[in-house]
């Protein structure tokens, strides 16, 4: 007897949540807690701490530019692979668990994927909050000018991460985690190298990088922008619109894309359970139990025939041959007296 049997109200409440948005989100949160995905925002805290520490050691700047120059290491070199790791871990978890049985429950697969992506986008938001938020806190404590640029860069970076999560969720679902990470490295490299090209508008991998360059005040190679550089005065509005359009497209693709077919666990019939009620226990026999008893009955009949065949021709002592009683001739000679005794006891008990 389970807890839901003792509390019918709890069982009915859980059944009502199946397929609803609160139920989908709650189920995804439970799955996230049991995996390494829940610790993903801690990577942002580590990157923020390292950026602040390196800036303290190597930069003499009195404003936020020294801190942002070290964040360029993440924006131009690590953003896509780290986000692909987040998406790939979630998809790998689903493959290994065969979707946790959700593929046979009355809930849309699209809704389950949407809930998973929403949780991943939320974790990405925490990652950027810990990363850029930690650097901003250090800038405020240190009294650096332009600390608000750090918060704006974190917000723009999170907007650019949504499309990356959607894309590599679909890739990891179709392939595997290693393939997704390798493609993410190529994606990041291509976007960084083309972020300042004249045709960057037509190359989506460049959009997340280009979005952050004016706010951070750096080139795609992490060199500080010259005050007269046209990129310094570029509005982030165009980049925001492009990244949001890409986010909608990639999220939609990841939601509708099924990916690899996961084989379900073969059906195993449940064993007959004994009831505590004496009357119901005498009649509670499923098809599996009936088939087993029929097998025992046929086995007993065949044993009897073989024993009769094994009697001495002259009748002997008038009973069964002692050897034949313990080892039956023919293809069933490997049977032991113990197994036959167990069958006979089952017959006496049941029949």
Oligomer: single chain
The total beta strand count reads: 0
Helix content: 55-70%
**Percent in strands:** under 5%
The major beta sheet can be summarized as: none
The number of helical segments is 15
Structural class: mainly alpha
Radius of gyration: 34 Å
Note the run of SSEs as H and E.
Answer: HHHHHHHHHHHHHHH
Instruction: Give the N-terminus to C-terminus distance in angstroms.
Output: 30 Å
Low-confidence stretches: 263-269, 271-288, 316-335
The whole-number mean of residue pLDDT values reads: 78
What is the molecular shape? Answer: elongated
Q: Compute the number of structural domains.
A: 2
Transmembrane segments: 36-57, 69-90, 117-138, 150-171, 178-202, 237-258
Region (Disordered): 303-324
Keywords: Membrane, Plasmid, Transmembrane, Transmembrane helix
InterPro entries: Lanti_perm_SpaE/MutE/EpiE-like
Short description:
Keywords: Membrane, Plasmid, Transmembrane, Transmembrane helix. The protein folds into two domains: 12-256, no CATH class; 278-350, no CATH class.
Give structural notes.
The chain is built from 15 helices and no strands. With 351 residues, it is an all-alpha fold. The chain folds into two domains: 12-256, no CATH class; 278-350, no CATH class. It starts with a helix and ends with a helix. The model is unreliable at 263-269, 271-288 and 316-335 (pLDDT under 50). Residues 303-324 are annotated as: Disordered. Keywords: Membrane, Plasmid, Transmembrane, Transmembrane helix. The chain crosses the membrane at residues 36-57, 69-90, 117-138, 150-171, 178-202, 237-258.
